[in-house]
Structures are given as C-alpha cells and as structure tokens.
Design goal:
The complex is a heterodimer of chains A (230) and B (82). Chain A is α+β, with helices and mostly antiparallel strands. Chain A is built from 3 helices and 10 strands, in the order H-H-E-E-E-E-E-E-E-E-E-E-H. Chain B has 2 domains: 38 residues, no CATH class; 37 residues, no CATH class. Classes of the chains: A alpha+beta (230), B mainly alpha (82). Chain A: One of its GO terms (biological process) is ATP synthesis coupled electron transport.
Chain lengths: 230, 82
C-alpha cells in the first residue's frame, strides 16, 4: 500500500509491475540527465563573459542535436513498446475471477468450479481494528493463489468504475454493459491495496480493493469456508 | 522541388539526419496504420463477401504486431467448435 510522503511507486508484486518500475527508472534517468544538461547550459549562458556577434550557423552542432535526441527517443520507445505488448499477453490463466463494480462496493465471483460470489465493502473508519488501514480495508478480500496467472473480467452494474491495484500493475475500467479482461501474477504472498479509479458518485473514494495472495492450500481452504458461509 | 531541396542540402548538410528521422518516423507510422487497416480482424472492408472478419479468428493465429513471451502457434485449442 502507499505510505505517507511516498514519492515513487509502491513495491512491485507482479512481474509486469517490475517491468514498469524498471522502465520508469530508465525513462526518469534520461529525463534527469537532459534536465541537468539544460540547467547547466542556462547557467553557463547567463554567467559567461564571452560574446560573439558574428556566429550565423554551424552544421556540426545541428547534426549532433538532431542525432542525439532521435537516438534517445528510440532508446525510450523500444522498451516502452515492448512493455505495452507484454501487458497484453495473457498466458494460460489458472483462475478466472469476475470483479463487478457497484455503487459503492465491488463484488467478486469465482465461478470456475463452484458458484462463489461475495461483496466487498469498505470497513468504516469507526469500525477499524488497531493496525488496519483507513479507507483501504474491506470486509471481504479477493483471495488469489500466489504465483498463478489470474484472469480478471471486469464490468460494472451501474456507472463507470475502475479496478486498480498499483502494486500488481493493474488498472482496468469497469464499464456497464462491457466485459474488460486483464490478468496478473502475484509473485509473492501478501495483501495488496487499491482504490476505485473512476469517479462514480458520492462514495467513489470509499470503495477500495484488497487482493490477498496466499499459497494454494490456503486458497482452497478459504474458498471452501466462503462456500459454506454463503 | 527536388532540385531545390538538393541544393539546400548541399549548403546545409545538417538537414540530412532530419530528413532521415522525420521521413522514417512518418513512414513507419503510415505502414503501421496500413497494417492495422488491412490486417486487423476488427476492420471490415467488404460487406458482401467478408462481413464479419472478427468471427473468423483462429486459435493459433497471431494478430498483434509483436509478442514478447507468447508463441501463439504453440497454444492448445481447448474450446469447442461451433
């Protein structure tokens, strides 16, 4: 989850998010280098005592400052396109979960083997137990097995919502009447938080998403328990 | 027109990389757009003979331009024919 005064991304919990993090580091390093260079040139131009009123043009420097930015842009574009196509690949998911957005909660359906469905409401601030996170905890978490490709089908029952979990690198709009598909692999066990990312009314900020990645046996126990309770 | 450009290039050779990159970029964009228009199964050109090409997708075909980790020819076809 996010922590106070955080500047960067949350720690990656899926291979796609790791790739995105590395790409962001790469692009940001290029941006820092260019900004430093420009700042240096500005300071140098402003503080120099040299003057030459008769320079008209220079072919060499023009070639350099055409070639170098083009090369830098290619160096940014190639990893970017690679990640773009990587994010679209869904390689043989082990489990399919449907996430439906409502006003103002999410409901999850695990219908591969049995008919398991439940709603996930935010825990109000006054009902939080010590150690729980404000505006982020829900009564029922979406439990998934760790290190398994999971396919999520996302839609909405009333207005636009968006299912987003930053540490898994997932964000997909929930559009009424439309089924959007995305996938992720949780690389490590843990609890990953997200929030609804499309304005949907009064309680848009109060319908969080919690994904809990557990080993497969725990997932099987959990789903049996949930089926009994239902 | 071309003669004027050639004369300007001789006096300002720095314009050559500019032509290469801008021309190359525009060419690649147009080629990709053409590929999308002609090869994308979501696009219908011939309403009489091929009205809904998105209904004719094969399970092992690759429709994307580039794959990183997937080999579509190795996928199993685990869905029913209809």
């Amino acid at each position: 989850m996010a922590h106070p005064s955080q500047l960067g991304f949350q720690d990656a919990a899926s291979p796609v998010m790791e790739e995105l993090l590395h790409f962001h580091d790469h692009a940001l390093m290029i941006v820092f280098l260019i900004s430093t260079l420009v700042l240096y040139i500005i300071v140098a131009m402003v503080t120099t005592k040299l003057t030459n009123k008769f320079i008209l043009d220079s072919q060499e420097i023009e070639i350099i400052w055409t070639l170098l930015p083009a090369i830098i842009l290619i160096l940014i574009a190639l990893p970017s396109l690679r990640i773009l196509y990587l994010m679209d690949e869904i390689n043989d998911p082990h489990l399919t979960i449907k996430a439906m957005g409502h006003r103002w909660y999410w409901s999850y359906e695990y219908t591969d083997y049995e008919d398991l469905g439940f709603d996930s409401y935010m825990i109000p601030t006054q009902d939080l137990a010590p150690g729980q996170f404000r505006l982020l905890e829900t009564d029922h978490r979406m439990v998934v097995p760790v290190e398994s490709p999971i396919r999520i089908l996302i839609s909405a029952e009333d207005v636009l919502h968006s299912w987003a979990v930053p540490s898994l690198g997932v964000k997909m709009d929930a559009v009424p009447g439309r089924l959007n598909q995305t996938a992720f692999i949780a690389s490590r066990p843990g609890v990953f938080y997200g929030q609804c990312s499309e304005i949907c009314g009064a309680n848009h900020s109060f319908m969080p998403i919690v994904v809990e990645a557990v080993p497969l046996e725990h997932f099987e126990n959990w789903s049996s328990l949930m089926l009994e309770d239902a | 027109m071309l003669a004027i450009v050639r004369k300007q290039l001789r006096n300002h050779p720095a314009l050559i990389p500019l032509f290469i990159f801008i021309g190359g970029g525009a060419t690649m964009s147009l080629l990709y757009l053409a590929r999308l228009g002609l090869r994308n199964p979501d696009v219908c050109w011939d309403r009489k003979n091929n009205p809904e090409p998105w209904n004719k997708l094969g399970p092992n075909d690759q429709y994307k331009f580039f794959t990183v980790n997937m080999d579509y020819s190795k996928l199993k076809k685990d869905r029913p024919d209809f």
